[in-house]
Amino acid sequence: MRDLKLTFRCEGCESMIAFPASEAGMIRECPECGGWVDVPEATRRDPSESQHTLASFQEELNKRYFEENVRQQAEKARQIETTDRHQEWVRQNLERESASLARREELLEREARLVACFERIAVSFEAILAKWAKNV
Length: 136
Ligand SMILES: [Zn+2]
What we know:
65% helix; two-stranded antiparallel sheet; mainly alpha; two-stranded antiparallel ribbon; 4 strands; binds zinc ion
């Protein structure tokens, strides 16, 4: 405690006045306006001081709230990033799969073309053989 004084505002003249703590609960004369004042029972801090305390408390609360908000935003961003990365992974896998399917189709097509080519060769070879057999 800074001193044993009770500081409060006079209801008559609105001046900040102080009385010794030992006079708490007594009726005294305001040194500013001369009106009667009730010296309060409880020790009151200078209102500007308690306002300051309230302001810093509010500030602290705002800061905490802000920090919590930032933390939550970061967490949300992290989750979105994880989801994005997962989707990217799925997309890449699908791409790879469709690429390998396309490659397989291409190979099958090439094989079919080769088979057709061999069949044509076989057919003409048979024709040549038949002609040759007639001539012999
Ligand atoms: Zn007064």
